[in-house]
Write a structure and sequence with these properties.
- This protein is mainly α and 43 residues long.
- It has one helix and no strands.
- The longest helix has 40 residues.
- It is rod-shaped, with a radius of gyration of 19 Å.
- It starts with a helix and ends with a helix.
Protein backbone atom coordinates (compact mmCIF):
# COMPACT_ATOMS: atom_id res chain seq x y z
CA UNK A 1 0.00 0.00 0.00
CA UNK A 2 2.85 2.39 0.80
CA UNK A 3 4.46 1.76 -2.60
CA UNK A 4 1.11 2.38 -4.30
CA UNK A 5 0.64 5.64 -2.42
CA UNK A 6 4.10 6.92 -3.30
CA UNK A 7 3.50 6.00 -6.95
CA UNK A 8 0.23 7.94 -6.98
CA UNK A 9 2.00 10.87 -5.34
CA UNK A 10 4.70 10.89 -8.00
CA UNK A 11 2.12 10.57 -10.76
CA UNK A 12 0.12 13.49 -9.35
CA UNK A 13 3.29 15.62 -9.16
CA UNK A 14 4.14 14.73 -12.75
CA UNK A 15 0.66 15.69 -13.94
CA UNK A 16 0.85 18.94 -11.97
CA UNK A 17 4.22 19.81 -13.51
CA UNK A 18 2.90 18.95 -16.96
CA UNK A 19 -0.15 21.18 -16.40
CA UNK A 20 2.14 24.05 -15.39
CA UNK A 21 4.29 23.52 -18.49
CA UNK A 22 1.26 23.45 -20.80
CA UNK A 23 -0.19 26.56 -19.14
CA UNK A 24 3.12 28.36 -19.66
CA UNK A 25 3.18 27.33 -23.33
CA UNK A 26 -0.42 28.46 -23.84
CA UNK A 27 0.42 31.84 -22.28
CA UNK A 28 3.49 32.21 -24.53
CA UNK A 29 1.54 31.41 -27.69
CA UNK A 30 -1.24 33.76 -26.63
CA UNK A 31 1.30 36.59 -26.36
CA UNK A 32 2.81 35.71 -29.76
CA UNK A 33 -0.66 35.59 -31.34
CA UNK A 34 -1.55 39.00 -29.90
CA UNK A 35 1.73 40.39 -31.28
CA UNK A 36 0.98 39.01 -34.76
CA UNK A 37 -2.54 40.45 -34.62
CA UNK A 38 -1.34 43.94 -33.72
CA UNK A 39 1.31 43.80 -36.47
CA UNK A 40 -1.36 42.75 -38.99
CA UNK A 41 -3.50 45.72 -37.95
CA UNK A 42 -0.52 48.01 -38.44
CA UNK A 43 -0.61 49.40 -34.90
Amino acid sequence: MVAGNSFVGRETCLIGCLDLHLWGQAFYYEQEFAKMNSEAEGT
